Amino acid sequence: MTIKHIDRKTKFRIFLVFFFLISLLATLYYTLASDYPGVDYYFHLRRFNVLIQALSDGQYPFYIDTTLIESYGYNVKSFYPDLILLPFAFIGIFTGALFAYNLMLFTATFLCGVFTYKLAERIYNSPFTAVISAILFTFCLYRMFDIYHRAALGEILSFTFVPIVFLGLYEILKGDYKKWYILTIGISLMIYTHLISSVLIFILILLFCVISYKSFLDNPKRLLFLILSGLISLPIVASYIIPMLEQISSNSFKFNSHVGELWRGQLAISALIKGLLGGIVFQNRMVIYGSGIGVLLFAPILLRFFVKEKSEKLYMTDIIVIIGIFLIFTTTYLFPWSSPYLQFFQFIQFPWRWLEFSSFSFAIAGGFYLSQIVTSQRNRIVTCTVVIILSFLSTINYINHFEREYTEGKVSPWEEEYLTEEPTIHNSYYIIGGEYLPAKVPSIFYIHDRGDSISVNNADSKISRFKREDTILKFTVNIAEADSLTLPLIYYKGYTALLNNKDLPITQSTHGLIQIPVNETGNVKVYYEGTIIQKVSFGISILAIFALCIYILIQRRKKPFKT
């Protein structure tokens, strides 16, 4: 039996086995991330460790890392969701954090290829196109850049769900619009993974909808199901979005001061051109040149000039490429990010975040263009083999260059002697820019110098028996008259303070710490209880997820949609 006579399901099973093995092999290389930690590695590893500990202690959901920043506490969860990390954190309870973390990278790599395969096969009805697209996207240079140099876990995981979003969008615009829930699932997973990438992909969804407006004119139901997919996403992501908005509305944070600096991350045209050769040629500054598209994504696009036969799929693919090229253009100095009309986009921090989606567009288009040039089964097998080999050579070349960059001190922002898993003042407690600190906190050095102490306004007030028990701060206060105390806790909405088991009002001090009034002598307990909104929104999300699962099960038992 020849490959030509193998049915599609069998081909997909072969792909699963094959891609499982190469994903496993790739992950063995990824484990070097613990030996050569990228910029955000310890930040995310800390998140992961704290999540494992919370699950072990039965304290999930939690919001405050109570031991970070010298036990002043840091709220990451309200701004950086952990839902996608949960399955691997459960595993980490039994295996340890490092194994579970690497298992998460393996799973993300494997599923990224699988989902890309399913998308490309659905659009082009070609297993060959699907295989090429899956390999090109999963092992693209920008993803390698995220894994190694940046160790940007949120963006790494978002790669996995990009194909799901576009599969759902394709079904609504061109296919079975009754599968609108695929888009809902994709959007929800993106939001629970990386909010910035979610906003960027939402912009692309709007762009594709404008381009495909005729689909809505021909069948208005498609627009209704598009709106439905978005509306159903809202309760699913409520447990993240609503508590985040609650915190933002209750205080001002450091990330507000980062607005207006997007232009600083723009690339020179020369850097962009060199980036197109990534995988073969790497420059001395990985952060600038290593984030390029790379020759393996760029070269297949050039095959478009040799595709002569016109078709609707070719037209659609050309549109995808044009969008990808435009996204690359937005990373350069030629694009006016400093314009006052583009201030909304300043939150994305770096314009080269668009490379995730330009890489995706080039991977999908490259697979299709190759399928139009390479038509015989034998040549397609050879082409797949060559693409796989070149992808691995490119990855190995990248890793070798990354190791050199690392050993030469061009990767880590911290001095080598301070680069340990333990967060200290010397490595900024691995909170990177401290974006989630209240704006009133002068700096982490203020907290370090202040120490683990309680400040009183009246000299006659005395503090004794001060201690921290698990997540609770306890002490005894003895006063002669009413006083106001400033505690060694960073202010976030959701804290509870009790004096002799009676609630105390909590305010924010002039330096962003928790401040409480005391009008009697007694025992004080302060802990993060959470807010009603956090608890209700968590329940809403759980119910919405179960409801969607039940709906999907019912729909799958019905007759399939016929295009």
Automatic annotation (TrEMBL):
The keyword Membrane applies. The chain crosses the membrane at residues 12-32, 84-115, 151-173, 180-213, 225-242, 288-307, 319-337, 357-374, 381-399, 532-554. One of its GO terms (molecular function) is pentosyltransferase activity. The keyword Phosphoprotein does not apply. Its main location: membrane. One of its GO terms (biological process) is lipopolysaccharide biosynthetic process. It is found in: Cell membrane. It is a multi-pass membrane protein. GO terms for cellular component: plasma membrane. Keywords: Cell membrane, Glycosyltransferase, Membrane, Transferase, Transmembrane, Transmembrane helix. PANTHER family: MANNOSYLTRANSFERASE YKCB-RELATED, MEMBRANE PROTEIN. This is Membrane protein 6-pyruvoyl-tetrahydropterin synthase-related domain-containing protein. It comes from Dysgonomonas gadei ATCC BAA-286.
